[in-house]
Amino acid sequence: MAIATLLALILLFKRLEAGPVPSPASDRPCVNFMLPVPATAQNAEYDIIHVNDNINATAYAVDLDTWSFNATSRVLRNITVSDTFDISVQLCVPPNGIKKQNLFIATHGGLFDKRYWDPAINPSEYSFVDAALAGGYSILTYDRLGTGSSDKPDAYTIVQAPLQLEILRSITNMARSGELLKHTAGNADSAGTTVSATSANTFKGSDVSLDKIIHVGHSFGSVLTTAFLATYGNLSDAAVITGYILNEHFAEMRKATFGLEYAPQNNMTLFGDRSSGYMVDGTLGGFQTVFFSTQADATTGIGGFDTEVLDYAFSIRQTITTSEFLPPPVNLGAAPQFEGPLQFMLAEFDYPICRGDCNLHFDPATFQKLYPKAKDIDIYTQQGNGHALTMHRKANLGYKATLDWLDRNGF
Ligand SMILES: *[C@@H]1O[C@H](CO)[C@@H](O)[C@H](O)[C@H]1NC(C)=O
Ligand SMILES: *[C@@H]1O[C@H](CO)[C@@H](O)[C@H](O)[C@H]1NC(C)=O
Ligand SMILES: *[C@@H]1O[C@H](CO)[C@@H](O)[C@H](O)[C@H]1NC(C)=O
Ligand SMILES: *[C@@H]1O[C@H](CO)[C@@H](O)[C@H](O)[C@H]1NC(C)=O
Ligand SMILES: *[C@@H]1O[C@H](CO)[C@@H](O)[C@H](O)[C@H]1NC(C)=O
């Protein structure tokens, strides 16, 4: 504890040393609240190893890695899940933002929560939320079901990709209809001001209509965003797929590499509220292997990471469920209804996605076939980065590439 406090002070001091902090949390036009999200999905019940300890967490991963494993034949029955889930969101609308009617909806990947987009360490270099706000955009980040402060229902039957997709759709519809902003009333914004239900402008900037939605995902969040484009393409105005692209080395990394542990056994303080089937990256080493690149790009020197950021990322690690780790039973194919611009933001040294080297020849024509009406399909590689793009040195250069590309496309 004392070491953590000391580290926090050192980091704060470093920030002060570096000059004025551009966007201290308390000055941000953001409000955090629980959003009740109705969703209905077709999930399935699977014949998989149940995880109530670390021994079974490892057995589970090895089972899925076994060459003859077949997820389809493990389906015991299909189930319809329909409920209203409490989802923890952070909504930021810059009152004077010139692009504030454009709302990012950001879906984080596995083993993180919404803090993935908004690291508390040196935000001007790492926070995508701060970059979006500085560009004048609005941004909503949320804890996917089963993570952070959101509901954490049954790992086997409820927390699955098809339901996560429907939650994303429901949040998108609430943003489009204006219902999202109504839910800000009664909550305190990050400056501590309680947002009044009667005065529309108490939440700074909430008088805006959020009429263009830019979906951004990372990793498993990009899988969900890809499924969203394929299934509900006309509900998205632009999309940024980060840390995910189909390629010849995709999914070569084995699930056992994560070093999964049963979450409550890994750390009761952090994960005492997780039930059977919730797992976490157990060790700092396993976490680094999947998410971090040790090397900077040879030419630019960009990338690599600071050990404080690795430690920070591990301290905010989150869980994934047994069912979420199965090959996602959602449509990851063509998106004939999606008509917006589309960017793939890749990490040069992404281990889980490209087995460590994304310097591959991606053929834009292939993607145009999948996204026949998409405009300006851009494939950008952030130099020297590992899978957790927001946690590598000069992460903000990648954010600039995304914001410049959006600007070129009229957003
Ligand atoms: C481990 O998995 C086996 C097979 O699914 C199951 O019978 C057993 O109850 C599990 N034990 C724990 C502690 O999870
Ligand atoms: C997986 O199982 C399903 C259903 O049992 C079967 O139709 C399919 O061919 C199997 N896939 C492979 C690759 O064996
Ligand atoms: C579950 O539903 C899918 C179609 O969505 C179907 O192909 C499959 O056979 C069903 N499985 C079972 C076990 O009912
Ligand atoms: C999207 O397309 C579906 C039909 O595929 C239609 O029912 C829906 O109204 C459309 N939504 C918008 C916002 O255009
Ligand atoms: C659990 O996590 C807390 C908070 O990060 C930490 O202080 C504690 O040392 C951890 N406990 C174990 C057993 O690792």
Automatic annotation (TrEMBL):
Signal peptide start-end: 1-18
UniProt keyword Signal present: yes
Top-level taxon of the source organism: Eukaryota
Pfam families membership: Abhydrolase_6
Domain AB hydrolase-1: 107-268
InterPro entries for this protein: AB_hydrolase_1, AB_hydrolase_fold
UniProt keyword annotation of Signal present: yes
Keywords: Signal
Protein name: AB hydrolase-1 domain-containing protein
